[in-house]
Amino acid sequence: MSVTDAEAGEFVRAYLDAFSSRNLDQCVSFYQSNAGMTFGPVHIQGMNELTRWHQARFAANASVVQIDEVSVDNDVIRVQGKMTSKRLKTWRIHTISGVGEFTVKDGKVSEVRFRMTPLSVVPSASI
Predict the structure, then answer these.
(1) Which of 4, 16, 46, 72 is the most exposed place for a label (fewest CB within 10 A)?
(2) Which SS3 state, helix, strand or coil, does residue 30 take?
(3) What's the pLDDT tens digit per position in 69-115?
(4) Is residue 115 within 8 Å of 37, Cβ to Cβ?
(5) When comparing pLDDT for 44 and 122, which is higher?
């Protein structure tokens, strides 16, 4: 089953609203109970791990600061954008650019893959 452009836009808006408001229950409600997430060399699986991942992002004050493009390929919603966090700023990195690929099955995310875009790190101004 394919995701429509309208469904993809609605999904992205709703998920980012939940993420920016730090609504943990609503964020994890977007995922199937056994959904997986891959970012860099790390892979997590299941609701407990997804809950911990969101809690860690909230604790680091992570935020999406820009969405450049949302596209759909069958059941994959691809979101390109930029984000930041306290942890990144500790390393003097203002933002990173990347892509999130959300595979949606039966209305919920079954798998998500995050990857940085080459040359995506924007350093903070010198102190």
Answers:
(1) 4
(2) coil
(3) 999 999 999 999 999 998 888 888 888 899 999 999 999 999 999 99
(4) no
(5) 44
Residue 111 · residue 35 · CB < 8 Å: yes
Which residue, among 53, 55, 61, has the nearest Cα to 86 in the 3D structure? 61
84, two tokens: 């930041």
- Rounded Cα distance between 79 and 77, Å, is 6
Both ends of the chain: CA-CA distance in Å?
51
Residue 28, both tokens: 């994890």
Place of tokens 């299941």: 46
For residues 89 and 101, what is the distance between their CA atoms, to the nearest angstrom? 25
Total-model pTM: 0.87
Secondary structure of residue 55 in the 3-state scheme: helix
Structure tokens at 11: 């999904």
